C-alpha cells in the first residue's frame, strides 16, 4: 500500500535519526523534524540497546475482537464509471454501472459500500433496457432490492446515478494515511498561489467507496472502465490504457481509461491536473511520468530507472510485469507517501519529487521500487484481509532491499536493512504485535513499522534460512499459483514448504503470528580446544515466545573464518565449538540476518579485529559503534581514521558519528581528517555529516569550513553548514545565509528556520509568514515551532498577524502534524503571553483527532 511517512508517527516524542538511521536508546527521545534528512546531534550505537524486562509490558495490547475476512455474498465482475466534477462544490457527479454475480448462494439483495452520496437513482440494466429498483441508503451502504432471486451462474448489471461529496465525510486517517475521504480536490478554485488545481484519489483501505459504489473489500476483484469529463487544459490518468479521448461541444473533453485484468477496488485511481507527461517505455509497454510542467526536465533523472527496475523485478521474480502499462504521477498535498494503484502509482510531492540538484543528495529509488514491486505483491496477488497486510507490505518493503542490492551493492542494501530494523525496534519500545494480526481495533492500525519494516526483515531472514534458489523459486510459485486472486499467510507458508520440502510452521508461527522479537545476550570463552558459547534469550517470555533461532557463528583463526551453524531453542543454552587455538574473534549471527536485539561480550581487540575482517556492513559499523566510548586508545583511533577512507559512504558516515567530540590520542590529526572529509569527500552525505561532526567540537572554530560549505552544490551540505553556523555565525556567513532566503528546498528552509530563531530580528518576520503558505508538511511541523521561538525575539505588538495565522492552522489545517506544530509554537509563546493559555485550552477541547488528543494530554 502507501509508502508511509513514518517519521511523523510520534511527533510529540519524535526520535532522532542519523543518516545511517541509527536507533535511539529508550529514554533519550527529543524533538526532531519528521523525515528531516539532517544528521542528528548525538547519534547512538548502531546496535540497539536491550529492552529492560518488564513484569507487565507497556506494549501489551488490549484484547480486540477477531477481524475476519469479509464474507463474500457477491463477486464484483466489472465496474464502468462516467464521472465529471463540480470544482466549486468539490463534488463528483457520477454514473456507475456495476456488474456482479452471486458468489455461491442465491441472492435477492445487493449491498454496496457508498459513503456520503446523494443517490439519484438505481436501475437494473437488462438487454439495453433499464428498470427502477427499490433501495435503502444510510449514507454508508446502499442496499438494493433485486427484481428476483439470482443464482451464482447469473450475472447482472445495476446502474446508479449519484453525487459523491467527499468533503462532507469525517477525515479519518492513520499514521500512514493522514485522511480517508477517497477523493481530494487541490486548490479547486485556483485561489491558492503557487499551487496548481488538481484532483486525485486514494483508495486504500476503503476510500474508493467515497467516490463510487462498490464492494470495498480487498478480497474482491473487477475489471473496470472510467470515463472522466474534464476541462481541456487538464491531463487525466487512471488504471489501464487510455482507449478514447473525445472533445465535447461545451469545451470539455472526455477521456476513457480501461483495465482488462481484474484488481481489487482499493486500487482504483484517478488523477486530473495540468501535468506534463514524460514518456518512457519497457519492452514496448508505455512507462510514463506525470509531473508539474516546471518539473518536466527533472522527470527522467528522477524516474528514469523505472524501466531497469521493471526488467530487474521481472527477471528476479521469474514473472514479467503483468499489466498493460506503468505510469507514475506526482501530486500535491498527498495524504500519504505514495500508493501502488494498479498500473498507475501516485506519489506525493514531499516524498518523491526531486530536482536535479536535490538528486545530488540521494534519489527516490526506494519509494519508486517499493510501489513498483507492489504491482506483483499487492496488486497481482492481493492480501485477502487487512489482517494479512504484510503479504503486501513486507514484500514491498523488501523490494527496496532487492533493488539496492542489485543497483548499488550489498553494503547499500545492508545499510538500508539496518535502518529498517532500527525503525521497527524504535516502534517496539511501545508496541509489539504479531505481523499477521486478526485482532486489531481499526484496520488502519495495520499500517505500522511491524507490517512494513519488521515484515521486510523477516523475509530477509527467511531468504537467508532457505537460500536464494529456494527463496526466489518459492516467490515465483506463489505469484504464479495465486495470480489475480486473494491470499492469506498459509498460502505463502505452503508454497515455501512445497519448494523446500520442510515443515516451516515453526518459522511462520514465531515470526508472523506471535508478537515481539528475541533479545539475545551472547558470551564466549576458550579452553581445551573448544569455544564455549553461552546464549540467553532475555525477552519476557510470558508475552513473547522462546525463539528457535538458526544462526551462523563464525570463528577466526589465523585470519581464516570458520562458519558453525547452530540452532538456539532454549531461553539459556550453551554450545561447544571446536577451535585449535583461541580465536581472534567469535561472532554470533555473522550473516547479520537476525531480527531482534543482540548484545555480545567482546574485547576491544576483538572489535578492532572484527572491523578489519568484516564480511558485511553491519559488522563494521557495529565495531565502530561499540568502540566509541573507548576512543582514547591509539589502536581504536587508527581504526576510526581508517574507516574514514572506507570505499562505502555509509561506513565513513558511521566513523564520523563515532568521532564526535573526540578527545583521544592523535586528536589534532583526527580533526584534520574530519575536516578533509567534510570538505572533499565525493559523497554529499559524508560531507554533511563531517560538518555536523566538526560542529560538535566545542570551543573550536571551523567557521571557514562552514562558510565555504555555503557554496556546496548539495542542499544537505548547505543545510548542515547553516545549522553549524547557527550558534556561531560570522560576518561573511551572515550575508550569504541571508541571500538564501528565496530557497524553497525543505532542507534549506528548515535550517534557515532554526538559524533565525537564534540570530533573527524583525527582518525575517515576513519570511516566516511566507513559509507558512509554501512549506511542505514536514517542514511546517518544525517551522511553526521555530516561529514561536523566533517571535520571542520581536516586539509583542508585531506578533498579531502571525498569532492569528498560527491559531487558524492549529484549529483547521487538514494535516494533524501541522496542527500539532502550530499548537506547540503557540505553546512556546504562551510562556510570556499568558492569554494564549486560554486559546490553547480551547484548541485542545475542540480537537477531534484521537492522535492529537493523546499527544495534547501528554504535553499538558
Automatic annotation (TrEMBL):
One Pfam family recorded for the sequence: Peptidase_M1_N
GO MF annotation terms: alanyl aminopeptidase activity; metalloaminopeptidase activity; peptide binding; zinc ion binding
UniProt EC number: 3.4.11.2
Extent of Polar residues compositional bias: 44-55
Residue ranges of the TM segments: none
InterPro entries, per the entry: Aminopeptidase_N-like_N, Aminopeptidase_N-like_N_sf, ARM-like, ARM-type_fold, Peptidase_M1, Peptidase_M1_aminopeptidases, Peptidase_M1_dom, Peptidase_M4/M1_CTD_sf
Reported cofactor(s): Zn(2+)
Keyword Signal belongs to the record: yes
Domain Aminopeptidase N-like N-terminal: 80-267
Keywords, in A-Z order: Aminopeptidase, Hydrolase, Metal-binding, Metalloprotease, Protease, Signal, Zinc
Similarity comment text for this entry: Belongs to the peptidase M1 family.
Listed name of the protein: Aminopeptidase N
Species: Hymenobacter gummosus
Lineage, top ranks: Bacteria, Pseudomonadati, Bacteroidota, Cytophagia, Cytophagales
Amino acid at each position: 500500500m502507501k509508502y508511509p511517512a513514518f517519521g511523523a508517527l510520534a511527533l510529540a516524542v519524535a526520535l532522532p535519526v542519523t543518516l545511517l538511521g541509527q536507533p535511539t536508546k529508550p529514554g533519550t527521545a527529543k524533538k526532531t523534524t519528521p523525515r528531516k534528512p539532517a544528521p542528528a546531534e548525538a547519534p547512538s550505537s548502531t546496535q540497539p540497546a536491550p529492552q529492560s524486562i518488564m513484569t507487565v509490558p507497556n506494549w501489551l495490547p488490549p484484547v480486540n475482537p477477531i477481524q475476519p475476512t469479509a464474507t463474500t455474498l457477491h463477486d464484483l465482475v466489472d465496474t464502468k464509471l462516467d464521472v465529471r466534477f463540480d470544482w466549486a462544490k468539490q463534488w463528483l457527479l457520477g454514473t456507475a454501472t456495476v456488474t456482479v454475480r452471486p458468489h455461491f448462494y442465491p441472492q435477492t439483495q445487493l449491498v454496496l459500500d457508498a459513503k456520503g452520496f446523494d443517490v439519484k437513482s438505481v436501475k437494473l440494466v437488462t438487454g439495453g433496457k433499464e428498470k427502477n429498483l427499490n433501495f435503502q441508503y444510510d449514507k454508508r451502504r446502499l442496499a438494493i432490492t433485486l427484481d428476483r432471486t439470482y443464482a451464482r451462474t447469473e450475472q447482472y448489471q445495476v446502474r446508479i446515478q449519484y453525487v459523491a461529496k467527499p468533503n462532507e465525510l469525517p477525515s479519518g486517517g492513520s499514521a500512514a494515511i493522514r485522511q480517508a475521504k477517497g477523493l481530494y480536490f487541490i486548490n479547486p478554485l485556483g485561489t491558492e498561489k503557487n499551487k496548481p488545481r488538481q484532483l486525485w484519489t486514494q483508495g486504500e483501505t476503503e476510500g474508493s467507496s467515497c467516490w463510487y459504489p462498490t464492494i470495498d473489500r480487498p478480497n474482491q476483484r473487477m475489471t473496470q472502465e472510467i470515463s472522466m469529463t474534464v476541462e481541456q487544459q487538464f491531463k487525466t490518468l487512471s488504471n489501464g490504457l487510455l482507449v478514447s479521448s473525445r472533445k465535447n461541444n461545451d469545451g470539455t473533453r472526455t477521456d476513457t481509461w480501461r483495465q482488462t485484468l481484474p484488481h481489487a477496488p482499493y486500487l482504483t485511481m484517478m488523477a486530473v491536473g495540468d501535468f506534463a507527461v514524460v514518456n518512457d517505455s519497457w519492452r514496448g509497454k508505455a512507462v510514463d511520468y506525470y509531473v508539474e510542467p516546471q518539473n518536466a526536465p527533472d522527470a527522467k533523472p528522477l524516474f528514469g530507472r523505472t524501466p531497469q527496475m521493471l526488467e530487474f523485478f521481472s527477471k528476479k521474480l521469474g514473472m514479467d510485469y503483468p499489466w498493460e502499462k506503468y505510469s507514475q504521477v506526482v501530486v500535491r498535498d498527498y495524504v500519504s507517501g505514495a500508493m501502488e494503484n494498479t498500473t498507475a502509482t501516485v506519489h506525493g510531492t514531499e516524498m518523491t519529487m526531486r530536482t536535479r540538484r536535490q538528486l545530488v543528495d540521494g534519489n527516490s529509488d526506494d519509494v519508486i521500487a517499493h510501489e513498483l514491486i507492489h504491482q506483483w505483491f499487492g496488486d497481482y496477488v492481493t492480501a485477502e484481509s487487512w489482517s494479512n497486510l504484510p503479504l503486501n507490505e513486507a514484500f514491498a518493503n523488501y523490494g527496496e532491499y532487492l533493488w539496492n542490492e542489485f543497483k548499488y551493492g550489498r553494503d547499500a542494501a545492508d545499510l538500508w536493512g539496518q535502518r529498517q530494523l532500527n525503525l521497527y525496534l524504535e516502534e517496539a519500545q511501545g508496541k509489539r504485535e504479531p505481523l499477521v494480526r486478526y485482532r486489531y481495533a481499526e484496520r488502519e492500525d495495520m499500517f505500522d513499522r511491524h507490517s512494513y519494516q519488521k515484515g521486510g526483515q523477516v523475509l530477509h531472514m527467511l531468504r537467508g534460512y532457505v537460500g536464494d534458489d529456494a527463496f526466489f523459486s518459492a516467490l515465483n510459485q506463489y505469484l504464479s499459483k495465486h495470480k489475480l486472486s486473494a491470499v492469506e499467510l498459509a498460502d505463502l507458508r505452503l508454497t515455501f514448504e512445497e519448494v523446500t520440502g520442510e515443515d516451516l510452521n515453526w518459522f511462520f508461527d514465531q515470526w508472523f503470528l506471535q508478537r515481539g522479537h528475541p533479545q539475545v545476550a551472547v558470551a564466549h570463552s576458550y579452553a581445551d580446544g573448544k569455544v564455549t558459547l553461552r546464549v540467553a534469550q532475555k525477552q519476557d517470555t510470558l508475552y513473547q515466545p522462546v525463539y528457535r533461532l538458526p544462526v551462523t557463528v563464525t570463528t577466526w583463526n589465523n585470519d581464516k573464518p570458520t562458519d558453525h551453524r547452530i540452532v538456539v531453542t532454549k531461553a539459556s543454552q550453551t554450545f561447544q565449538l571446536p577451535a585449535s587455538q583461541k580465536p581472534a574473534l567469535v561472532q554470533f549471527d555473522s550473516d547479520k540476518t537476525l531480527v531482534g536485539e543482540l548484545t555480545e561480550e567482546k574485547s576491544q581487540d576483538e572489535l578492532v579485529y572484527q572491523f578489519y575482517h568484516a564480511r558485511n556492513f553491519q559488522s563494521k559499523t557495529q565495531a565502530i559503534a561499540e568502540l566509541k566510548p573507548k576512543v582514547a586508545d591509539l589502536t581504536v583511533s587508527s581504526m576510526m581514521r581508517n574507516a574514514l577512507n572506507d570505499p562505502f559512504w555509509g561506513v565513513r558516515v558511521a566513523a564520523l558519528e563515532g568521532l564526535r567530540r573526540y578527545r583521544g590520542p592523535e586528536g589534532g590529526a583526527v580533526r584534520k581528517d574530519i575536516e578533509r572529509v567534510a570538505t572533499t569527500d565525493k559523497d554529499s552525505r559524508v560531507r554533511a555529516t563531517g560538518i555536523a561532526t566538526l560542529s560538535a567540537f566545542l570551543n573550536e572554530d571551523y567557521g571557514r569550513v562552514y562558510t565555504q560549505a555555503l557554496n556546496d552544490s548539495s542542499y544537505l551540505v548547505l543545510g548542515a553548514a547553516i545549522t553549524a553556523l547557527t550558534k556561531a555565525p560570522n560576518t561573511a556567513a551572515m550575508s550569504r545565509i541571508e541571500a538564501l532566503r528565496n530557497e524553497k528546498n525543505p532542507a534549506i528552509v528548515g535550517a534557515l528556520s532554526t538559524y533565525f530563531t537564534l540570530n533573527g530580528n524583525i527582518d525575517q518576520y515576513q519570511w516566516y509568514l511566507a513559509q507558512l503558505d509554501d512549506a511542505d508538511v514536514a517542514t511546517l511541523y518544525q517551522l511553526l515551532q521555530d516561529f514561536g521561538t523566533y517571535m520571542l525575539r520581536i516586539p509583542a505588538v508585531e506578533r498579531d498577524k502571525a498569532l492569528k495565522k498560527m491559531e487558524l492552522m492549529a484549529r483547521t489545517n487538514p494535516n494533524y502534524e501541522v496542527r500539532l506544530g502550530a499548537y506547540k509554537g503557540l505553546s512556546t509563546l504562551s510562556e510570556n503571553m499568558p492569554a494564549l493559555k486560554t486559546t490553547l485550552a480551547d484548541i485542545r477541547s475542540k480537537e477531534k483527532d484521537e492522535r492529537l488528543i493523546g499527544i495534547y494530554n501528554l504535553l499538558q
